[in-house]
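Preliminary data (for renewal application), zinc ion complex.
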Amino acid sequence: MATLGDWIAEGGVVVLSGAGLSTDSGIPDYRGPSGSARRSTPMTYQTFTGDPVARRRYWARSHLGWRTIGEARPNDGHRAVAALQQQGAVGGIITQNVDGLHQAAGANDVVELHGNLARITCLDCGELTPREIHGRRLDEANPTFAGVALAFNADGDAELADESLDGFTVVDCESCGGLLKPDVVYFGETVPPHRVTRSFELVESARTLLVLGSSLTVMSGRRFVLRAAKLGIRVAIVNRGVTRGEPYAGLLIDAPLGIVLPHLVALPAA
Ligand SMILES: [Zn+2]
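Predicted structure:
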């Protein structure tokens, strides 16, 4: 019987990663078995752009949540994926995560399906700003803000007592005065078409689609597994708990990624 090691050794692997890959870095997966159920509903694009009070509260929460996510570091799973890529076994990487940890581990050719929290985008002029610069502007605009996060979510949206949010000042685009938003895809928003196209290209050129830490609950990720299965491309899934990709998986491993992945590669000392 084939093992995951056999499939990886044959090369042509494209990775599709989800929140389960980053839980060992301290970023909670609110859908997975290790995540606490989030208390607030996720921000939607419609609410963010249409409700100034909700937007102000979101920025206060996001500003705090970033302090944790911005400090997260890659774990053994991210390092293993990067090492497999450097060895030539893994080609492209498609990630549903917005934490940038694949690249921080040294990986390249990463399609960030849902964007990256480290970038802020202007909804009017499209200018991108690094999070650090935007964070400094928020600090300057809110010198007395000292909210304490109760918890935070994988999308960088912290849970915060409402009284902490009162009076938080949002800053707008320095170039055009437009609305600023983290460069991540919200619920109710579609993934930019060029990222979807690039992801399908990667999948269609793969020998194996390796799903890491995704329950494949949302179609934005599951569609790539469906495409692989339709084309007869092998699908392997390493994930804790149930996954909706199970019917399409030739190999399914329910085990911690931080244990499984380093076994597949001779990791350099961390
Ligand atoms: Zn602008």
